[in-house]
Design goal:
Layout: E1 4-5, E2 12-13, E3 16-20, E4 23-36, E5 42-51, E6 59-61, E7 66-69, E8 74-83, E9 90-100, E10 108-110, E11 114-118, H1 132-139, H2 142-156, E12 161-162, H3 171-180, E13 184-190, E14 200-204, E15 210-211, E16 216-222, E17 225-226, H4 235-244, E18 249-254, E19 264-269, E20 275-276, E21 281-287, E22 290-291, E23 299-300, H5 301-310, E24 314-321, E25 328-333, E26 339-340, E27 345-352, E28 373-381
Parallel strand pairs: 2-11, 13-16, 18-21, 24-27
Antiparallel strand pairs: 1-4, 3-4, 4-8, 5-7, 5-9, 6-8, 9-10, 9-11, 12-15, 14-16, 17-20, 19-21, 22-26, 23-25, 24-28, 25-27
Helix pairs in contact: 1-2
Length: 382
Amino acid sequence: MPSFEIPDIPAKAQLKQETENNQTVSTGAVTFTVTNKTGQGLSGRVTIEPQGEAKAEWFSIDGESERQFTAGGTHTFTVRIKTPPTATAGSYTLKVRAVAVNDPDNDFAESPVVAFDIAAPPVAAPKKKLPWWIFAAIGGGVAVVAGVVVAVILFTGGGGTKVPNVVDLPFVEAEQQLTAAKFTVVQENDADSDKPPGRVTAQDPAADTEADEGDQVTLRVAAGVEVKDVRGETLAVAEGVLRVNGGLKAKRIAGPAGGKAPETVIGQDPLPPARAAIGGTVNLTVDPGVAVPNIAIPATQQNAVNSLQGVGLGVRIDGRCEFGTPDQVVEINPAAGTFVAKGASVTVFIRTQPRGSFGCAIFNPFLVSPTDRFTSRSFVVQ
């Protein structure tokens, strides 16, 4: 049974036509939710599955396509659709797939088919010719020409349209505003801006400048930097990789202990191929490991075993030749407070009375060394 489910999703996405670089493109979006049906946290990834003649490059997902789901948790995803001017008019479909990152080939759920239509581009209207009477008026003298010009201005409304201020807006929103005002939008990458990727950093002409319909407005858009995949690295190494890549900073988030070496990065947000603002922050989830519990010395063997196994650690019992109460714990290694991987074994040294064996000193208080080992009693407690 799949870990994720995709509830009802709109059966059809509505696209609208927009002008980009004097060409017609179709844009739209469809929003859906993905729910983790299990009782444990999972990493889930969403992919878009074009159907039929639909092309993968027409689609994108807002935000991260891979996210951490809490037990029973839900995330909302928005799929953006933008078809090129060369796309053939007609009906197309797509699906959305949610997969468990740890088993993508077997643990996945698919949405129903979502349809969308690409309309044929509008036919350009023929340009209107100037009325014959304008030419007649021109031939009648300067005074008449002046009167005609005034009349034409009054008739057409004169002047231009003020360019809206779109600086600091996401490019998609800025493009929508300018297109609605009947301007042509041209995008240029701004590789040096520290604003979030996709954010407009400058515009030309400036806001409130008057321009004619169809005039070009150039938008500088923050490019950001590519986020490197640092999962599997230690936190210290991951911080260094991010730092040299656009001055990115790392924010440590303690995740569940899962058996990795302490401070190993097990998750990050955002994930490649996402981009981040120069100097921005990447959230890194690390496996904190398990701290070896503090066991009072001397302690009984059973108490030590219970304490260690209670925090998810394995135990190895080893004997040590010493005089004193038998089977008392005299040392643990690694020491209390040390962080180790969950499931790792901690050695518990137990006092064992000297016996006349090859594994221990002969019964003679002058021959017994506290460092002698009684290895014949070594075993692992599961």
